[in-house]
Design goal:
The protein contains 14 helices and 19 strands. It has helices at 55-64, 96-101, 115-123, 137-152, 156-179, 207-214, 231-237, 248-253, 262-265, 274-278, 283-296, 335-346, 360-372, 383-389; strands at residues 2-3, 17-19, 36-38, 41-43, 50-52, 70-73, 89-90, 93-94, 106-109, 127-130, 187-188, 190-195, 198-201, 218-219, 228-230, 242-244, 269-271, 311-313, 404-406.
């Protein structure tokens, strides 16, 4: 590898690929694979030992089948197939001595390194390329071409990039065809975080938002300009389902102002870890399949999902034990009534805030619960009603058992 001083590209650009000898002889293709020019570096031959610092680039390398080129990874590259590789530390500050000792000749990342660290690596014969994630389909093609050309050459690498993208596109189109059969508009959104009265959400121009299109789902918050909205806008948009990052579901369920949302009352809040809506290799197919399956209720189009996306029943633990002969009705005020109302709210039968007072609204919610769960409809919280209500077998207002939760990391 040697630097081309004449090219004044910065280290953090989305790199473009060009190659010498673009005319390919079908009888001797490999002769024309190298040299390959990437940004300000010429590769006279394919790198032999590569350290990948970016989980996004790692996802693309795995999708293209070039994992055999990898000698090391950073701590954020959590893909199961890469766990056998030694870690060299964080993406922005890898350990230069470990990289040198492993014989690494190329480092691929998407975060800029400290100039002194980069110089140290260069002095040890280790080239560093920073390749940013794609923001559009066109950028995605360039990104795949960049990575595959470096590892596989101008011709074979680009052919591998094209075939990989075609395969992924076919899978996405299949999901879109299955989920798009219904004429009913399905609304949803992705929430990165909630802080106070503000939500950070996926909007147009962000890669995450484009995944909803493949799932035939309308992202009701896509038109926001900066991706930061008030709680009031989320309430007005009233998505039928909500997908969110790790730890956000608890914030949504625990926010009294969001109890009226269709997604909350219908128990359609799903944790989709950020990696699934950020990584641009085969992982995005899993994300789209999950979005489509949960939004449309069509079941999986993929054979399986990773463990963190599998659903489990939440084992409900009652805060009190119902007793025979003890019942609660309109006009009474007890601490137990608050527990009853909290459970009714959790299952989607009530809205608002639970208190100790058994009101007409409480009785109406109890009657609704009794009807859905096949009990005698009286509006009175008697022993039989409370035994079912305070158990994991209780049917929610949408007819599902209890509350679905999602395993996360």
């Amino acid at each position: 590898m040697k630097k081309m001083v004449s090219l004044a590209l910065t280290a953090c650009m989305l790199l473009s690929v060009s190659a010498c000898n673009m005319i390919v002889n079908d009888n001797n293709e490999e002769e024309y694979d190298f040299p390959v020019t990437v940004g300000n570096v010429i590769f006279d031959e394919a790198p032999q030992k590569v350290a990948v610092l970016s989980d996004n680039i790692a996802d693309i390398i795995l999708a293209c089948g070039y994992e055999g080129k990898l000698a090391a990874r950073s701590d954020v590259c959590v893909q199961e197939d890469l766990q056998i590789l030694p870690s060299v530390g964080t993406p922005d500050s890898p350990d230069s001595r470990t990289l040198r000792d492993l014989g690494v000749d190329l480092v691929l990342g998407d975060e800029c390194l400290d100039p002194d660290l980069k110089e140290t690596l260069s002095n040890n014969g280790i080239e560093v390329l920073i390749i940013k994630p794609a923001n559009s389909e066109n950028d995605l093609k360039k990104l795949y071409n960049n990575v595959a050309s470096i590892l596989g050459g101008s011709y074979n690498g680009k052919m591998k990039a094209m075939s990989t993208l075609d395969t992924i596109q076919g899978q996405l189109d299949n999901i879109r065809n299955v989920s798009g059969e219904s004429d009913i508009v399905t609304t949803s959104c992705y929430i990165y975080d909630i802080n106070g009265d503000e939500c950070t959400v996926a909007v147009n121009g962000q890669y995450a938002s484009s995944l909803f299109e493949y799932a035939s789902v309308t992202n009701v918050l896509a038109e926001d300009e900066d991706g930061v909205i008030g709680i009031d806008m989320l309430i007005r948009s009233n998505p039928q389902s909500i997908f969110c990052a790790e730890g956000v579901k608890e914030k949504i369920v625990g926010n009294k102002d969001l109890k009226s949302l269709a997604a909350v009352s219908g128990s359609k809040i799903y944790t989709l870890p950020k990696k699934y809506i950020e990584l641009q290799g085969s992982t995005r197919v899993i994300a789209v399949d999950y979005l489509a399956s949960k939004s449309h209720g069509i079941g999986k189009t993929l054979p399986s999902w990773p463990d963190e996306l599998e659903e489990v029943q939440l084992e409900y633990v009652s805060p009190f034990t119902p007793k025979e002969g003890i019942f609660y009705t309109v006009g009474e005020s007890y601490e137990v009534v608050q527990y009853i109302e909290e459970r009714l709210i959790e299952l989607g039968y009530m809205q608002g805030k639970a208190d100790k007072n058994y009101t007409d609204d409480t009785a109406y919610a109890v009657s609704h619960f009794q009807s859905v769960n096949g009990l005698n409809v009286t509006g009175i919280a008697d022993y039989d009603t409370l035994t079912v209500l305070m158990s994991s077998a209780a049917l929610a207002s949408n007819g599902s058992n209890g509350e679905e939760v999602t395993l996360t990391f």
